[in-house]
Amino acid sequence: MHTRNFSGELDIYGPGCRSAPAMTLRQAQAYCRHLARTHYENFTVASWLLPGHLRRHFYNVYAYCRWSDDLADETSGPAESLKLLDWWEGELEACYADKTRHPVFMALHDTIREFDIPRQPFEELLSACRQDQHQTRYATFEELLGYCRYSANPVGHLVLQLGGCHNATQVGWSDSICTGLQLANFWQDVSNDYDRGRIYLPQDSCRRFGFGEDDFRRRTSTDSFRAMMQFEVERAERLLCEGLPLLPHVPNWLRVDVELFIGGGLAILAAIRRQGYDVWSKRPTVGKLEKLQLIVDVWWRKRRHGSQATATS
Fold first, then answer.
1. Which of 279, 201, 182 shows the shortest CA–CA distance to 240?
2. Residues 80-133: pLDDT tens digits?
3. Residues of the chain with pLDDT under 70
4. The pLDDT of residue 165
C-alpha cells in the first residue's frame, strides 16, 4: 500500500459513490496538487523547478497516473483491478466527452484542452496496468521492452506535450529515457516485485545466466544472479544515455526535469552496483545527500547555461 489510504479514497471517489462532495475546478486542482506533493518524493522535488504556471498541469497528469497505478496494484486482486480499470477508462471517456465527474478528470480536462493532448497516451498507460493483471513473466528482453512501451513511454509523451516539443525525433529519445528509467526501477525492486508474484527479469536472461525459478524462491544473490544483474543494469544505463540528445531540444525549464530523471535513474543503477548487484538482502536506494547533490548540479548547469546564452546574445 502506498502512503495514502487508497481504499478510503476509492470509497469517496470510486464507482457508484454517492457521498463525494461536489468540487469546483479549483478544488479538483488542489486535490491533484496534494496527491502529487505528498505521495512521490522525486516528483515533488522536480515540481519545484517547473515554471509556476505549468505545475498544476503536471500535478493533474501525475494524479491520473497515480490513480491508474493504484487501481492496478493496491486492490484485493486482478479481478477487482480489471473491473476498476474499466471504470477508470470510462471516466477517461467521459472526460474527453466533456462529461467529467471525478476530481482527477475535472482537473485533467483543463490540461487536455489547453495542450490539445490526445487520448492515446492515457489509454496506453491503462493497457499496461491491465497487462500486469495477467502477465507476470517476460520471455525475452524485447517482450519486456514492449511492456515498457505502454507502462513508461506514454509518460514521456505527455511531458513533451506539456513542453510543446512533441515530435517524432524527440519522442524517440524520450522513449529511451523512460524505458531506461522503468528498467532501473525494475532492477531496484526485484524483491518487492517477486513478492507480488512478478518477475520482470527476462526469462532468456535467466536461462543465459543459469538462474531459475527455484533460485528466485531462495532469494539468493549467487554469482549467476550478480552477473545477470550487471548485464541488465548496463542495458538500462545504455538506454538512459541514449536519451541524452533530447536535452538541447526541449525548453530550458523542461531540460532541468529531464536531467533530474536521467540522473535519478543512473543513481539507482549506481546504487545497485555499490551493493554488488545484491538486490535481495536490501533494496538499493539513493540517499538524500546524493539527491541534493544531483539537484544542485542540475541547477548549476542550468544557471551556467543561461549565463552563457545571455553572454552570446
1. 182
2. 999 999 999 999 999 999 998 799 999 999 999 999 999 999 999 999 999 999
3. 1-8, 11, 16-21, 39-48, 291-292, 294-313
4. 95
The reply to whether 149 falls in a domain is yes
Q: What is the pLDDT of residue 38?
A: 80
Question: Scanning the structure block, which residue is given the C-alpha cell 495542450?
Answer: 115
- In sign, the C-alpha dihedral spanning 75, 81, 85, 91 is negative
Residues 218, 145, single domain; the answer is yes
Q: Are residues 108 and 242 in the same domain?
A: no
Query: Domain limits at 277?
Result: 135-306
Q: Indicate whether 179 belongs to any domain.
A: yes
Q: Are 114 and 57 in contact (CB under 8 A)?
A: yes
CB 125 within 8 A of CB 154: yes
> Is 186 within a domain?
yes
pTM equals: 0.88
Task: Tell me whether residue 98 is in a domain.
Answer: yes
pLDDT at 40: 57
Q: How far separated are the first and last CA of the chain, in Å rounded? A: 52
- Total structural domains within the chain: 2
Q: Position of cell 500500500?
A: 1
Asked if 141 and 176 sit in the same domain, the reply is: yes
Q: Are 180 and 233 found together in one domain?
A: yes
pLDDT at position 300? 62
Q: Do 82 and 187 belong together in one domain?
A: no
Where are the alpha helices (H) located in the chain, listed in sequence order?
A: 6-13, 25-39, 41-48, 52-73, 78-96, 103-115, 120-134, 141-151, 153-163, 168-188, 190-195, 203-209, 213-218, 223-242, 252-274, 288-312
